[in-house]
Amino acid sequence: MAEHNDFGKLAEELAEQFLVEKNYKILAKNFRFQKAEIDIITEFDGKIVVIEVKARGTDIFMEPHEAVTKKKIKSIVSATDEYLKSLNIDKEVRFDIISVLPDETGKLKISHLEDAFEAFDAN
Question: Where does the UniProt annotation place the signal sequence (predicted)?
Fold first, then answer.
């Protein structure tokens, strides 16, 4: 496995631990629909919270959440619709982004951006 894939997997594991510590209930990880993938699907405060995890070795070029393009949002929304339909879930949905970046000492830090985008942002 490529080093960047290992880092991405580590970032998703750290994000999951972070969410569990904040009392999010993990419903699914790496949910796939067609070519789309949702990193983590949770339930929190009566809502379904879809989490996109972004990791970077540095933020010199852009913040990780800035890498979530309109195309990526569209695929996440499409996969979310499929997930909800397949399990007959009718709850409010929130889309969050968790960024994982090293600080100046190299220690990984987690940043949680709630309501990072809306489903209509995919249009």
Answer: none
Best CA proximity match to 122, nearest among 71, 55, 50: 71
CATH number of the domain that 100 lies in? 3.40.1350.10
Taking the C-alpha atoms of residue 123 and residue 112, their distance in angstroms, rounded to an integer, is 24
Q: For residue range 1-37, what is the model confidence (pLDDT) as tens digits?
A: 444 467 778 889 999 999 999 999 999 999 999 999 9
pLDDT value for 122:
60
Burial of 40-75, coded b for 16+ CB within 10 Å and e otherwise, reads: bbbeeeeebbbbbbbbbeeeeeeebbeebeeeebeb
